[in-house]
Design a protein that fits this description.
This protein is an alpha/beta fold and 252 residues long. It contains nine helices and twelve strands. It has helices at 11-23, 52-62, 77-90, 116-122, 140-143, 177-186, 204-212, 233-240, 242-250, and strands spanning 3-7, 26-31, 45-47, 67-70, 94-97, 110-113, 129-133, 149-154, 166-170, 191-195, 216-219, 229-230. The protein has a six-stranded parallel beta sheet with strand order 3-2-1-4-5-12, with helices on both faces. Helix 7 links the parallel strand 10 (191-195) and strand 11. The relative contact order is 0.16.
């Protein structure tokens, strides 16, 4: 019997969870646990890490997992690398459900950088008002660049900045162009720093930056080992053979 481990944390993972539950596929949704209040899922859910490659390998065996789908955030590189290694050692099928990276459009003022350290270095020497759209885990190196003022948008409360250093907004996507325009204008943002996560839910800040003429420092995705990759929920279902079953049931 097929039993799927879905490594989640993205909008695409939640959509796939809905599809798997609707199809009656045995599956478990795994959250990394970085968000205090993750979205409820229609599948049995586990929260937290596995304890490295060895822990993941043991979990896959203990839970009789037959297929793994990695639908984690494009920057959750360690989890993705562990999944490749553990599945390779157990000869388990692994698929990545990965949203396409954002591509620059006419009017964009993007500077691509390879990592967080390069993003800090790319900020101007003169004081800037920076929309720092990278999550809370990697904020500290930017705060050490003390001449800048930072706007953070986070899912969970509990992280504060002195008023003279920045502001924190608690919100959860998807975000809209009108709201991001208003947010950036209200805080007089001059620069945006973001990870190239792709997808529609967080793209509004890039469109707002384009409209306002703000430079964007865009952190490129980390390199990952080769693994089969698809870009849509439908393709992931087809990889599992679920789409074919549904078509037969409908008489298509």
């Amino acid at each position: 019997m097929m039993r799927v481990l879905l490594l989640g944390g993205t909008t695409e993972a939640s959509r796939l969870a809905q599809a798997l539950a609707g199809a009656g596929v045995q599956a478990v949704f795994s959250y990394a646990g970085r968000t205090d209040a993750p979205l409820a899922q229609p599948l049995p859910t586990r929260v937290g890490g596995f304890g490295g490659v060895e822990g993941l390998r043991d979990h896959l065996r203990a839970e009789a997992i037959t297929h793994v789908i990695d639908a984690t955030h494009p920057f959750a590189a360690q989890m993705s690398r562990h999944a490749v290694q553990a599945c390779g050692e157990l000869a388990l099928p692994l698929l990545a459900l990965e949203r396409p990276a954002w591509q620059a459009q006419t009017g964009d003022r993007w500077q691509h950088v390879p990592d967080l350290a390069a993003a800090v270095a790319a900020l101007p020497a003169s004081p800037a008002r920076v929309f720092l759209a990278i999550g809370r885990q990697h904020v500290q190196p930017f705060l050490e660049d003390t001449q800048h003022w930072y706007l953070l948008r986070l899912v969970d409360p509990g992280f504060e900045l002195p008023e003279e250093r920045g502001a924190v907004v608690i919100d959860r996507g998807p975000f809209t162009l009108d709201n991001d325009l208003a947010l950036m204008q209200r805080h007089r943002i001059t620069h945006v720093v973001a990870k190239n996560a792709g997808g529609l839910g967080a793209a509004a800040k890039l469109a707002a930056a384009r409209a306002l003429g703000c430079p964007v420092i865009l952190i490129d995705r980390p390199s990952l080992p080769h693994r089969p990759t698809v870009g849509t929920v439908q393709q992931a279902l087809a990889w599992l053979g679920v789409a074919a079953v549904h078509e037969a049931e409908r008489g298509v």
